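STRUCTURE:
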């Protein structure tokens, strides 16, 4: 099986790297500058799974061919239009698995590749790319969840799942990936919202008076929006998430907060803005989520 990974950052580089470690035929679609750096220094990952350094196989957009069985998209959601352009030479073959935040990107990908060729994907990981290009993995999160949104039991996605099971990261072949996408959206909106609003880790927020309650209230706002759209959490699952996001001493920061620390652009429109819009005409108040969104709008005005 041939796998193409668009993006060699905290998601694509991490999961693609550990797939390469077991001998999987993985190629990374990169820019010329990144290709040169990888050729000279390789791909390095720092992780509790075991540090990894390898010489990845890379390709430029102009050299692509339609030879891949799986095409993994791990760019920022605001770069999706460019990603689609970059992939044009390999269009016509392969299943698309986007590991992007939110769900609104699905409509664009369906239009471009066809609904039956676009799978659903969710990445649970806390990682960042250091200035030297090293990928650093934090916390115990290291899971890919993916599945066929059309529920037609695609053999290719099953084969990819069997390959992933041989790696060091966790993997789930979902039988309801649409629900999983919404659950991840709730989770990332909560974590990104809290950590960017206070410019702190979850543990730092939780130890403050009212901090833990604020995180829980933000989660409830987001969960309610998902429920309005027909995607519900069972009580045990919700309780477990709350336990994790309010854990004492948790070092977890959302990737959006790490982007803020680097003075970079963020996915606030796709994560917060689209999520607030998803409540439609329902008379739902989401003051904390709205505050997170306004905070990021103000931040963006300082960097443009």
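SEQUENCE:
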């Amino acid at each position: 099986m041939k796998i193409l990974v668009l993006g060699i950052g905290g998601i694509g580089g991490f999961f693609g790297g550990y797939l390469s470690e077991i001998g999987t035929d993985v190629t990374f679609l990169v820019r010329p500058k990144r290709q040169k750096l990888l050729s000279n220094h390789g791909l390095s990952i720092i992780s509790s799974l075991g540090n990894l350094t390898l010489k990845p196989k890379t390709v430029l957009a102009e050299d692509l061919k339609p030879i891949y069985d799986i095409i993994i998209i791990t760019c920022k959601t605001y770069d999706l239009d460019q990603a689609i352009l970059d992939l044009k030479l390999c269009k016509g073959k392969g299943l698309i698995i986007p590991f992007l935040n939110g769900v609104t990107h699905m409509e664009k990908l369906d239009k471009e590749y066809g609904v039956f060729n676009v799978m659903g994907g969710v990445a649970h990981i806390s990682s960042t790319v250091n200035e030297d290009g090293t990928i650093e993995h934090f916390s115990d999160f290291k899971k890919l969840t993916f599945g066929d949104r059309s529920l037609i039991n695609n053999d290719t996605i099953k084969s990819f799942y069997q390959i992933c099971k041989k790696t060091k990261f966790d993997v789930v072949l979902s039988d309801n990936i649409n629900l999983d996408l919404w659950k991840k959206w709730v989770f990332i909106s909560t974590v990104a919202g809290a950590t960017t609003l206070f410019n702190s880790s979850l543990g730092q927020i939780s130890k403050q008076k009212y901090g833990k309650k604020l995180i829980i209230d933000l989660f409830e706002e987001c969960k309610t929006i998902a429920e309005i759209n027909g995607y519900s959490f069972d009580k045990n699952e919700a309780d477990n998430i709350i336990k994790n996001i309010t854990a004492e001493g948790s070092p977890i920061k959302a990737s959006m907060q790490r982007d803020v620390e680097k003075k970079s652009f963020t996915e606030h429109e796709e994560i917060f803005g689209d999520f607030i819009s998803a409540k439609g005409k329902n008379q739902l108040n989401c003051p904390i989520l709205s505050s997170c969104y306004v905070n990021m709008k103000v931040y963006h005005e300082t960097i443009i």
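REMARK: The beta strands are 2-6, 25-29, 43-46, 52-54, 57-59, 70-73, 95-98, 120-129, 135-147, 170-173.
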